[in-house]
Structures are given as structure tokens and as C-alpha cells.
Amino acid sequence: MKFSRGLAGVVTVTLLGSVPVPLLVAPASAAAPAVASTVAASTVVASTVAASTVAASCRSADHPALAAELARDIDRALRGRVSTAAVGVDDPGQDVQCWLDSSAHFDSASVVKVIILGALLRLAADQHRNLTRTEAGLATAMITRSDNDAASDLWADVGRRYLQHFLDLAGMTQTSLGPGPYWGLTQITARDEMRLLRLLVTKNAVFDTKSRDYALGLMARVIPSQRWGVTAGAPRGLTAHVKNGWLPLAAHGWRIHSIGCFTGHGGGYCIVVLTQDNPTMSYGVATIESIARAINRDLNR
Q1: CA-to-CA distance for 108 and 160, rounded, in angstroms?
Q2: Residue 265: what pLDDT?
């Protein structure tokens, strides 16, 4: 079985059903002693969000009853779960926003790959060119099947300086890039992840229409085994643009994240759910999907 590189950490491969899922290993270029030191350091770099007792807050000037229902249902979905969660919901069409611990930091795991893609697309636009064939191939592998080697290559090719420039352009002020080549330890928040998703689904000065369509197209083609999470309970008539991440570390257990937007007739909304302190991957997925089912149900009555 092939080992993947690019995420700092302690696990090489686990199985999701019969599909091998690459998790965390040191880059192939790292010396053996550096692997041990990185594993030890990961408990320091890892976010230290305590289990939250904060209630979800939703608002809507046009639909206050819907906002109140969403807040109750998000809280109910988390009742009895040991997961620490941050949630964001944005549905401009119904003038509804929800937040739960929106500024809490989490290790990104593979959801950072949308940031890498966004930086790559903006870099190409700045250079007045299309993606090269190599870049397009790496971007496709990175998003549609969460290929870690592709992410590591693009992280290095785009470069830390331009990745930070992209975060600045996007207004993602709460996001901190992972140390060195360890993109999976990038610190993210629900607020910043929602900001990125909104840039992909609305006209703005950061992305042109071609770039937005390209990114959303890749996120709509994520392989079936990785389309869990915020897609749970979404109407079949909507197109789901999703990216998930999973990462186990000694501190705070499994980080399980899911971000996505839903487009089409009746769509146009986005959901972010970030979690940690999950005892297993499946437990974290179940937590996210419980929240997502409630949100998708309430927004599509």
C-alpha cells in the first residue's frame, strides 16, 4: 500500500469501508529523526479548543422563526455528543446566518486543500494564464480524491508567501498557515471557512467567474466515498460542492471537518462544520451529519 506524504502526524493509512484513506505522515523529504520530532510537536501545534457549551446563534430579519428553529436544532443535534464543534450556516436567499464558536481554531486536515486551490487559481489569474496541465491534474487529484501528494506539491509550488497573500486578499484573518510543509496543521475557523465558500459562490474581486466555476466544479466531483458530512439530508435536486478532512492526533483525538455549498433551484447556501475530540472517525462523521441533516431539513422545508 502506498504511503502518502504531506501532512505532519502519526498515521499513514486507515480504511473507510474498503477505500484506503490517506491520513498523516511526514513528507518524503523529511529525515527520519524529523518525523519523531514533528509527531511530538504536533501536540503543541494542534489547536487546544476546549469542549464548548456555547449555544448556536442564528439570525434572520426576514425569517426569525426559521432562525430560532435552526438554532434549536443545531443545539439538539449536538446534545449528548462528546465532539467539540464549530458551525457556520449562510443562506442569503432566506437571509439566514447561524454561528457556533465561529472563531474557535482547529487543525485544518484536508479542508485546507480548498485554500490551496483558491491560491493557485488566484496566482494563475494574476499571471494572466490558465492552469498548466500539471497544475490542473494536481488540483483535480487534490480536491476530488483528497490526494495528499498533490496537495504537498501545490503547497510548495504556490509557496508560503503567496498562500499568505491569498489569505490576506480573502480577508481570512483568523487562518494561520501550517508550519513548513505541514499544510494539515493550518489553523482554521468556521468564520474564515465560510468566508472562503462565499467567495466561491458569489461575484467578488478575489476570484473571477472562471476560477469560481472551476473550483466549484471540482468540489462537485468529489468521489462518492468522500461525500459524507454536510451533504447529509440535502435535497437530491441540489448540486453539492463539498470538501472534507480527517486527522487523528494524540491531543483532541480525531479532527473531522466538512465544508460545502449547495447550488441549483432553491440552493445557494453553505454549511461549515468543524469538529475535534472525536473518539473515532465514524463518531465525528456522525456528529457532523446529525447537524447537517437538521440544517438541510430546516432550510428546505
Answers
A1: 16
A2: 84
CA 33 from chain center: how many Å? 30
Q: Kindly tell me the number of DSSP H helices and DSSP E strands found in the chain.
A: 9, 10
Angle between helix 209-219 and 112-126 (nearest 10): 150
| b/e per residue 103-120 (b: at least 16 CB within 10 A) | ebbbbbbbbbbbbbbbbb
Contact 255, 275 (CB under 8 A): yes
- Alpha carbons 260 and 63: distance in angstroms, whole number: 23
Closest CA to 47 of 272, 257, 283: 257
Let me know: does 110 contact 194? Beta carbons within 8 Å.
no
Q: Quick one: cell of 108?
A: 485544518
Average pLDDT per block of 10 residues along the chain, 301 residues long: 39 32 34 31 38 84 98 98 98 97 98 98 98 98 98 98 98 98 98 98 97 98 98 96 98 98 90 98 98 98 90
d(CA 8, CA 104): 21
As a whole number of angstroms, the distance between CA 222 and CA 36 comes to 33
Q: What is the pTM of this model?
A: 0.85
Amino acid at 117: L
Look up residue 229 and give its DSSP letter.
S
Radius of gyration of the chain (CA): 18
Burial readout 193-224 (b: 16 or more C-beta within 10 A, e: otherwise): bbbbbbbbbeeeebbeeebbebbbebbbebee
Residue with cell 488566484: 122
In 180-280, where does DSSP find H-type helix?
A: 190-201, 209-219
Q: Cα dist. 111→95, 188, 228, 243 in Å?
A: 26, 9, 13, 6
Q: Are 275 and 83 in contact (CB under 8 A)?
A: yes
Q: To 5 degrees, how large is the angle CA 249–CA 252–CA 258? A: 85
For strands 96-100 and 57-59, give the pairing.
antiparallel
